[in-house]
């Protein structure tokens, strides 16, 4: 009897220390052929050393995407079983102080690249009746302050994945959305300690706001990246995967409030979590002292 060929998974954004890195290792442990990608191959050398295939892939560069498609076609003969759209950028800043050019670049990576990469690999996914897996976030559900553009980009991921699932169904391809909670990675390290501008209207409360922008306090609630990856991979490899999987720290409370709460429930919950009342007092006090 001939062996069943190994399934192949391509993952974008697998630089060391991130979610993509953990997913690549877990798929490898489960026996799949893993194609780990990153803009800088030096950041995935550790995966190559483990026996994974690695490819350069810049998800906002058309030529880079097409080169990756051609490489995968040579590797597999024209089939791709699983595509994991994991690449993502962060941008934490108050909306009044935000730079729209930075926000647009983030949307290019977090939102538009998902569709561009999926379009490019669609023939290979259709050939294998495969799966597209997009890494969304609870930030797309709960309006976290001082990161509104990032929240919006992840809300777009959540919705685009649902639309993709409907459109891809006639082609035999599934689409899975991962509503990711807090996971212990180097995500906030890559934000370079975001600061409020000196002239920000929120400057009187910068000692409260800037630590939130830098992710302070989230580490305690975070799930270990390998635990997260094991849960995601287990679901993706099922014949009938959960289409919208919630996994990671703080996911239950966000799911519960968004499912059973009223439309403006976050107006009650979020200000308490992020000391918005104290921020208000600081700003008002500063105004009176002028």
TrEMBL record:
Q: Which GO terms describe its molecular function?
A: acylglycerone-phosphate reductase (NADP+) activity; triacylglycerol lipase activity
Q: GO terms for biological process?
A: phosphatidic acid biosynthetic process; triglyceride catabolic process
UniProt keyword annotations, A-Z: Oxidoreductase
Can you quote a single GO CC term? Answer: lipid droplet
Q: Note the CDD domains from the entry.
A: 17beta-HSD-like_SDR_c
Presence of keyword Oxidoreductase: yes
Classification via InterPro entries: NAD(P)-bd_dom_sf, SDR_fam
Specify whether Oxidoreductase is a keyword of the entry.
yes
Q: What does the similarity note say? A: Belongs to the short-chain dehydrogenases/reductases (SDR) family.
Record protein name field: NADPH-dependent 1-acyldihydroxyacetone phosphate reductase
* Organism in which the protein naturally occurs: Lachnellula occidentalis
């Amino acid at each position: 009897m001939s062996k069943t060929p190994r399934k192949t998974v391509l993952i974008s954004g697998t630089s060391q220390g991130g979610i993509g890195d953990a997913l690549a290792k877990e798929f490898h442990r489960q026996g799949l052929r893993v194609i780990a990608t990153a803009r800088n191959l030096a950041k995935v050398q550790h995966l190559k050393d483990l026996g994974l295939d690695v490819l350069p892939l810049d998800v906002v560069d058309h030529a880079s995407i097409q080169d990756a498609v051609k490489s995968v076609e040579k590797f597999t003969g024209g089939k791709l079983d699983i595509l994991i759209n994991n690449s993502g950028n962060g941008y934490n800043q108050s909306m009044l102080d935000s730079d729209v050019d930075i926000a647009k670049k983030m949307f290019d990576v977090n939102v538009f690249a998902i569709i561009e990469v999926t379009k490019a690999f669609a023939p290979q996914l259709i050939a294998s009746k495969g799966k597209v897996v997009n890494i969304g976030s609870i930030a797309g559900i709960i309006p976290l302050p001082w990161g509104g553009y990032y929240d919006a980009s992840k809300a777009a991921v959540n919705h685009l994945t649902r639309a993709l699932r409907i459109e891809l169904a006639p082609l035999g391809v599934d689409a899975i959305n991962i509503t990711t909670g807090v996971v212990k990675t180097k995500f906030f390290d890559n934000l370079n300690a975001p600061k409020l501008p000196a002239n920000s209207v929120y400057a009187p409360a910068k000692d409260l706001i800037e630590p939130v922008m830098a992710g302070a306090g989230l580490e305690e609630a975070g799930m270990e990246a390998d635990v997260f990856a094991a849960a995601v991979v287990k679901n993706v490899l099922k014949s009938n995967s959960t289409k919208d999987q919630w996994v990671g720290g703080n996911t239950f409370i966000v799911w519960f409030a968004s499912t059973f709460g009223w439309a403006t429930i976050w107006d009650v919950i979020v200000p308490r979590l992020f000391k918005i009342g104290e921020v208000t007092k600081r700003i008002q006090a500063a105004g009176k002292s002028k």
